[in-house]
Design brief:
With 222 residues, the protein is α+β, with helices and mostly antiparallel strands. It is 24% helix and 22% strand. It is globular, with a radius of gyration of 18 Å.
């Protein structure tokens, strides 16, 4: 288990204890199975967007859960007043197992200081177009530990150059290195461009569902 996953698990336990709930009681309130909560608190799994929205609905600071920093109380700024807090939405996509075309996935926002984003090299002009991808398992982002929070720029949702992108593959968002070929097809590997490409048949670059280009990673703050 990675150090980050261990710290996340410890904060999940702390959050539940602050709520005064057992694992079974918390699972019922989150609308998930008891074993899911158990796996979260053992560091064997990472809560997804719906579970994080559930924690937030119970009053738990999702930003603290993920990066270990308490969310600064955010007041509505006066006209023209500058705020140093940036709210970044989750890049989650609707769960295909859910019924009803109007039913949407519950999402959550990460709220961080601009200085935190600047620390990982994200300029101010890019901040309004950012979304996050939480790596819930090893397959989502090879070479990155489970629980890593990836920052993605939606304005760079076209394959302008080879690089690391967030992609929609089926019902999930994954992080992969993408290389365009001269024949219009694409090669997708892990995060390392030297890895063997995954087989995507005759998929053209124009058919690839790109969420955006990866511009930063938040593993541990403070």
């Amino acid at each position: 288990m990675s150090e980050h996953a261990t710290e996340l698990a410890e904060r999940l336990i702390e959050a539940r204890e602050e709520l005064g709930l057992t694992q079974r009681e918390l699972a019922e309130k989150l609308g998930i199975g008891w074993r899911s909560v158990q796996e979260y608190e053992q560091g064997r799994a990472v809560p997804g967007g719906s579970a994080l929205a559930g924690y937030a609905g119970l009053g738990v600071d999702a930003t603290w859960l993920l990066v270990g920093e308490r969310e600064v109380e955010l007041r509505v700024p006066a006209a023209g007043r500058h705020t140093d807090i940036v709210a970044i939405p989750d890049a989650g996509i609707p769960d295909g197992r859910k019924k009803g075309k109007h039913q949407q996935e519950e999402l959550w926002n990460l709220r961080v200081h601009r200085s935190v984003l600047e620390r990982v090299g994200i300029p101010a002009e890019r901040m309004p177009s950012l979304v996050t991808v939480l790596l819930e398992d090893d397959a989502m982002g090879p070479e990155m530990p489970r629980g890593t929070l990836v920052i993605v720029d939606r304005d760079q949702s076209h394959l302008a150059a080879d690089g690391t992108y967030a992609l929609k593959l089926g019902n999930r968002v994954v992080i992969r290195f993408v290389r365009s070929r001269l024949d219009g097809e694409i090669e997708v590997s892990g995060l390392n461009p030297t890895w063997p490409a995954e087989t995507l048949g005759t998929l053209k670059a124009s058919k690839l569902a790109v969420v955006g280009r990866v511009v930063g990673v938040l593993k541990r703050m403070g």
